[in-house]
Amino acid sequence: TRRSSDLQEKKYLFDYFKSVELLNKKNIAIVDIGGNGSMHKYLNRLLKRNNYNINLNGYYLALANGAQENRRKENLNISGYLSDIKFLDNNITSLEFAFSAKHGSTIRIDVNCQPELDEDAGAENVEIINNVHSGILDYVSEIAELHFKYKWLKISKCDALRHAFRILMKPTDLEAKKIGNIKNVNGHTKAST
């Protein structure tokens, strides 16, 4: 039945938490791309409902408007490097793709405390993801070099990332061809050039 399956998955998840000594901690940092803080909210609820009093601190690249509501309603300790940027509310999926793992998302933890991966994700995207990751690293290196070379030059977060956001949302024909056909590894969206 569905209930027994859910209970079994919960057991495997807690076995995994024990194997990485997560349940012995007083404070845990969650580092993620971001969005609305849903993963943080549900992990917090799960731990509290199972009598684990662990302080979760969420550090996210970006937070959308829904994160503020989750923070208030659930009393979550979350912060985002990029917050209050209008681009993020409708485009978290683009950031998730840009920073996605080549192997795809973890669906659940199995009986051996190993992650079960989304087998439908990744294979056709590996080259594209590698190119996107390389581009991001090159871009960050260039910005860092400018920062260290011209310390007096102040570059805001928005200005530093404006070009990257543009490429993700409105690439030129050449950029789109270089990125190629994309299937989001988390299955949220599909885009094609």
Content-based structural category: alpha/beta
SSE pattern: HEHEHEHEEHHHEE
Low-confidence stretches: 185-193
Give the tally of β-strands: 7
Shape descriptor reads globular
Largest sheet: 3 strands, parallel
Fraction of residues in H or I helices: 40-55%
How much of the residues is beta strand, in percent? 15-25%
- Count of discrete alpha- or pi-helical segments spanning 4 or more residues: 7
Strand order of the largest sheet: 1-2-3
Average pLDDT value? 78
- Distance between the amino and carboxyl termini: 43 Å
Rg from alpha-carbon coordinates: 19 Å
Structure commentary:
- By secondary structure, the chain is of the alpha/beta class.
- Helices cover 50% and strands 18% of the residues.
- The protein contains 7 helices and 7 strands; from the N terminus they run αβαβαβαββαααββ.
- It has helices spanning 2-19, 38-49, 65-74, 86-98, 126-149, 157-169, 173-179, and strands at residues 27-35, 55-63, 77-82, 106-109, 115-117, 182-183, 190-191.
- The strands form 3 sheets. The chain has a 3-stranded parallel β-sheet. It has a two-stranded antiparallel ribbon with strand order 4-5. The protein has a two-stranded antiparallel sheet with strand order 6-7.
- Helix 2 (38-49) links the parallel strand 1 (27-35) and strand 2 (55-63).
- It is globular and about 55 Å long.
- The model is unreliable at 185-193 (pLDDT under 50).
